[in-house]
Write a structure and sequence with these properties.
Order of helices and strands: EHEEHEEHHEHEEHEHEHEHEHEHHH
CATH superfamily of the largest domain: Glycogen Phosphorylase B
CATH architecture of the largest domain: 3-Layer(aba) Sandwich
Mean pLDDT: 92
Length: about 375
Amino acid sequence: MSFTDAKVALVFDWMTNPGGAEKVNLVLHKMFPDAPIFTSVFNPEKVKGFENAEIKTSFIQKMPFAKTKHQVYLSLMPYAYELFDLSDYDIVISSSHSCAKGIITKPETLHICYCHTPMRYAWDNWHEYINQYKMNRIFKYIGKKRIHKIRMWDRLSAERVDYFIANSNTTKKRIEKYYNKMSSVIHPMINKKDYKIAEKTGGYFLAVGRLIPYKKFDLIVDTFNKTGLPLKIAGTGIMEDDLRSRAKENIEFLGYVNDKKLQILYRECEALIFPQIEDFGIIPLEAMASGRPVIALGKGGALDSVVENETGIFFKKQTPLQLKKAVEKYMEQKKEFDPEAIRSHAEKFDEKEFRKKMMKYVKEKWEHWQKTMV
């Protein structure tokens, strides 16, 4: 069977809030517009761009508060994905940071998983999820009791994937460690046409993302409380009230901002602050595509996108002292950062490149798969 004749299905984790994975998912949908999308929960009010997609949700979709509190149903996610019937499809592409890769396919079906990370709350970050996230004590107790079963299922479900694609070298190492599987790296993307370089900056630093514990916005606030430099924070989340209460007057919380406003914020900031360990992180690319450098922790996915002293500055430890020193270093050297050169680097991650690499990969694996099925 030729590649053009193959029936393709897409499988995504819950689609409840916009984020990096959802941006990848949207591009996959554009690449395979006729492919149905299977997902546990879909909130069309929050996740845009899928208005013309055929979306098949699980039984969790109809459960109370599923669109806004999907975390409550994490223990049901494995069962939900195993119930999906994908027997009609020749190629299944899952985009997974949780349970999407756990779908069951027939032996003849090629299953490629674009892995954003092995299930974070089950492996390297599970202590942080249990201890730092605000949730009912009963849910925390149940979570501690059931996490080993989720971890066992996650490891078992990795065996159902024929080929893994990692979104970064950090994720590639995690896939090998937790799943004992090899993978190829194809970085996520930006659309360079959406970003421009400003004639001058607005004199403020910028932090963007969901206000949740592992994103380390508390570290950013504590640092800028000490520096007194102007900081704008774009995003919402469970930590917002706590962060607002501890922040001084030089820190402005913008809440949710739309894409157009965010593009302006990027190009007019001094630099983006990015202190968390991410699997990859599209936000730094968006800032660099706007010609602005990134002050980032020198670990995780930032190592794949930021070039030290050319497109940004790294610091070694997640402490206010280390981040403060990095900000001070930027202030001393900011004239050395060339916006055009920074944008040129970010263009290597343009959506066209992602599409080309992904399509080439899927076609090659399909051709090889066809030979093994003879």
